[in-house]
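Minutes, project huddle
Topic: does the predicted pose make sense with nicotinamide-adenine-dinucleotide bound?
PN asked that the exact inputs be recorded in the minutes so nobody has to dig through chat later. Recorded below.
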Amino acid sequence: MKLEDIKNICVVGAGNMGHQIALQAAICGYQVKCSDVSADTLKKADAFVDSYLPGRVEKGRLTAEQAKQARTNIKFVASLEEAAGDADFVIEAATEVLSLKRKIFADLDRIAPKHAILATNSSAIVSSKIADATQRQDKVVNMHFFNPALVMKLVEVVKGEHVSEETADVTMALSKDMQKVPVLLKKEVDGFLLNRIFAAISKEAMWLLEMGVAEVEDIDNACVYGAGHPMGPFRLNDLTGLDLSYIMRMEKFRETGNPADLPNPRLVEHYMKGEYGEKTGQGWYSYSKK
Ligand SMILES: NC(=O)c1ccc[n+]([C@@H]2O[C@H](COP(=O)([O-])OP(=O)(O)OC[C@H]3O[C@@H](n4cnc5c(N)ncnc54)[C@H](O)[C@@H]3O)[C@@H](O)[C@H]2O)c1
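Predicted holo structure (tokens), as shared on screen:
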């Protein structure tokens, strides 16, 4: 298969990531059907498209004609059969649960045309853990978008051993055609590229804090004003959630048994107090509830 053969895209899951990936594909000229098991989520996603496109036109990012075309290109549907039945390329962006993803891929294998590539947007599950739920393992690949998917340019494409050259090439080409900047990982690795790099920075930042070398704000400032990062690791952690970091570090520790992987004492302290970051009004920084 070549990029030119892709006309219809199916996105499974219309949550945070799915509806934005679907809309980006629709803006880029693809016929998109996005499915979800939640009627409420489908309704919200559809309403989001109606509110988002006029703003793009006002800002001069899209012409009125392009926005109108994008609107007609995208459909939100409840049935996976309807969404994937004529798909040339599927992007799964459903809840991050391995058993659920395996079930969805087994269904997709039955429903989607034989030539269709089945990609997962999972942020942590490598596609080799899912591919054997299908009869087309060479066409099952990681295609990892970043949040918010309409804005963030990076896409990580992971070519596990089971993935064919053609699948990796077409996934890279489609990412570019969706106005993204894809990077190719030549093998599977936990956390892919960017999250590994961020995890290393965040771990080091927390140890520097723990060792009393510098305070939160100064460590963040070093990253912002010295390395040009848009925000420091603590500010970023307040955005992504200290609860998530705690859970991920505990999971890593359970996997490796290495005490160095345990969450740092200051992180544990915040976690135990329910101080998860911006969403609770308190994390590494304090946020006014207003
Ligand atoms: N949120 C992020 O920052 C981010 C970034 C990159 C990748 N991801 C990955 O994207 C995927 C989705 O994450 P999200 O943040 O959009 O989650 P989300 O909870 O916002 O959305 C997931 C959606 O999947 C739907 N769903 C569950 N089972 C389904 C099924 N059988 N068929 C169709 N839809 C189903 C849910 O109803 C929900 O609307 C996950 O694999 C996650 O790891 C998330």
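Observations noted during the meeting:
- The chain is about 45% helix and 15% strand.
- The pocket of nicotinamide-adenine-dinucleotide is lined by residues 12-18, 35-38, 41, 93-96, 100, 104, 121-123, 145-147 (CB under 6 Å).
No decisions taken; revisit at the next huddle.
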